[in-house]
Amino acid sequence: MANSNSKSVTFDNIKKIFKDPQSGQDVAAVAGVSFKIEPGELVTLLGPSGCGKTTVLRMLSGFEQPTSGRIMIGDTDVTNTPPNKRDTAMVFQSYGLFPHMNVFDNVAYGLKLRKVPVNLIDEKVKKFLDMVGLGAMAKRPPSRLSGGQQQRVALARSLIVEPSVLLLDEPLSNLDALLREQMRVEIRRLQKNLGITAMYVTHDRVEAMSLSDRIIVMKLGNIIQMGTPSEIYRDPVDTFVAGFVGKVAFFPCEVKEISDQACNVEIKGKHFAAPRWSKKLKIRDRALVMARPESLSLGEPGTGVEDGIVTANIYLGNSVETWVHTELGNVLVQIDNPDVKHVYNEGEKVSLTFDPILTKVLEDDLEK
């Protein structure tokens, strides 16, 4: 739920054109994007390097100027407003802490700039350090903190000024895997408890899926898809999104029939009805069945849609990841509850099949 200070963010046909220093030609880093973030919502920009996500964030912060278009925070047009007048706060990848200040003074810095009374500064800093679990470390210099603790200080420093919008630029990329997992939970908890509007930038699909209310997938300066994590994962618009947000296998097929309820396809003489499909598909089109690891199962050779050989079993406790080498490439199969399910040995011949309910039929755009 949004707090009273949270505001919406609106991008209205924003473009950012750079001049290529070698060719002298114009290059669109952001090619006319439009979207809205609701008050109190956390939206993640997800995409590969060079897709434009960081440029979008920097334009919202004021560190980059759009070539054209309009940016609104609430009802205010901030397109040409300097960064220090935008009521935003940034959490950087590199923490950006002042090494000569202790934890308390780092967190208090923004309040001191705003000339907040000393007694209120003391009260707020204690509150926010307790909120991020660092109340006992107020007097420590940043050099005596772990990476996760430093990122918590940076988060508290940004949150304490109660900005209308919190901006997070790949803030967890310098942390190890366990700390990243812990900090994802921490950021989500704080953002929701405070009800603050937030924009998060990452190329890490796990971060995006676990943190976001909505995800915006970008490619080459364009928005490819916007939706909840579930929508993006289960119902991707194309093979790029399908592959970027999760592990996936694609099975070539032919569209045989389309009804209001399902798209019927044929794979090697076998027929399947998928409840989700690209609306651009027509009967007799060549297409691809998108299957996630959890939708796949293994059986004896010749019983499924594609045969292969088990090349690796990775035991994860509550599941086993089985890799199968096929003519289509290496396919990952997720076997839940392996203690009560059959796990084929490495080197065994198997056949892959899928649960059509968990799949989607997509246009065959892998060569595009």
Tally the beta strands.
20
Low-confidence stretches: none
Biggest sheet features: 6 strands, mixed
Strand content: 35-45%
Give the overall pLDDT as a whole number.
91
Helical proportion, percent range: 10-25%
Q: Regarding quaternary structure, how should these chains be classified?
A: single chain
Number of helices: 8
Which of globular, elongated, flat, extended, rod-shaped describes the shape? globular
SSE run: EEEHEEEHHHEHEHEEHHEEEEEEEEEE
- Taking the alpha carbons of the first and last residues, their distance comes to 42 Å
Mind telling me the C-alpha Rg?
A: 24 Å
Biggest sheet: strand arrangement? 6-7-8-3-9-10
SS-based class:
alpha+beta
Question: What are the defining features of this structure?
Answer:
five-stranded antiparallel sheet; 23% helix; globular; alpha+beta; 8 helices; 368 residues; 35% strand; single chain; 20 strands; six-stranded mixed sheet
